[in-house]
Amino acid sequence: MKRAMREIIFDTETTGFDPASGDRLVEIGCIELINRVPSGRTFHAYYNPQRDMPAAAEAVHGLSSIFLKDKPLFASGVDELLAFLEDSPLVAHNARFDFGFLNHELRLCGRPDVSMTRMIDTVAIARTLHPGAKHSLDALCTRYGIDRSHRIKHGALLDAQLLAQLYIELTGGRQIGLGLAQEEEKAAIDGELGAGAMVRPVRPARVFAASAAELERHGRFIATLDKPIWLEEAQAG
């Protein structure tokens, strides 16, 4: 049976734009997709950045220093996060930003970086599909009819949920998941039948033709019929 395709959609919230200047990750939200369909499994965590929250950043996501003060440090929850991510491809919107902060936090607690080969960037996909258009998450949700009316401020888990819907649309819509499900169903049926199940051979169609004697008998029988209907229709025509 074909192995299920697992991907993780994720989003982060931070104190700013540049981890190299001291900005930190304060929230991460992850959605598990199996064969491009949300499985229902998620990961969500807030982290204490051990620094103040700039007003501009708080205006975007609403996470204050007071709210984050009693949250755990990233290092204390890193094992749980990495266990959820496993070795699956990681999908993010403007993914280099999210990968940059994630890997910065991993380095701070002595863990290896997440390889950039696992990165899938939905902004890059959108630019290929819609060159010259707006590629923000809001603009693309509007383009694809994804409801974001409940999105008042940015939030890592909420944005990951929206991005999961967008990623499915950008990569072919629900039909991809349906096709994979059909393949799995066929494989399951084949498995139930077993490798030694009998396969009926395909035979060419048989040709049936009357013999000369049969045609002669048929002709004699037709001659005995009194005013057959097909002759009346032919004469009327």
UniProtKB/TrEMBL annotation:
GO MF term (any one): DNA binding
Cofactor binding: number and manner: Binds 2 divalent metal cations. Magnesium or manganese.
Catalytic activity: DNA(n) + a 2'-deoxyribonucleoside 5'-triphosphate = DNA(n+1) + diphosphate
Superkingdom of source: Bacteria
GO cellular component term of the entry, any: cytosol
Enzyme kind, highest EC tier: transferase
Binding-site residues, substrate: D11, E13, H61, D159
Positions with a binding annotation for a divalent metal cation: D11, E13, D159
UniProt cross-references to InterPro entries, sorted A to Z: DnaQ, DnaQ_proteo, Ribonucl_H, RNaseH-like_sf, RNaseH_sf
Gene Ontology BP annotations: DNA replication proofreading
Record flagged with keyword Membrane: no
Protein keywords: DNA replication, DNA-directed DNA polymerase, Exonuclease, Hydrolase, Magnesium, Manganese, Metal-binding, Nuclease, Nucleotidyltransferase, Transferase
Cofactor: Mn(2+); Mg(2+)
Active site: H154 (proton acceptor)
Subunit structure: DNA polymerase III contains a core (composed of alpha, epsilon and theta chains) that associates with a tau subunit. This core dimerizes to form the POLIII' complex. PolIII' associates with the gamma complex (composed of gamma, delta, delta', psi and chi chains) and with the beta chain to form the complete DNA polymerase III complex.
Matching PANTHER family: DNA POLYMERASE III SUBUNIT EPSILON
Protein known as: DNA polymerase III subunit epsilon
Originating organism: Sphingobium xenophagum
Upper classification of the organism: Bacteria, Pseudomonadati, Pseudomonadota, Alphaproteobacteria, Sphingomonadales
Gene giving rise to this polypeptide: dnaQ
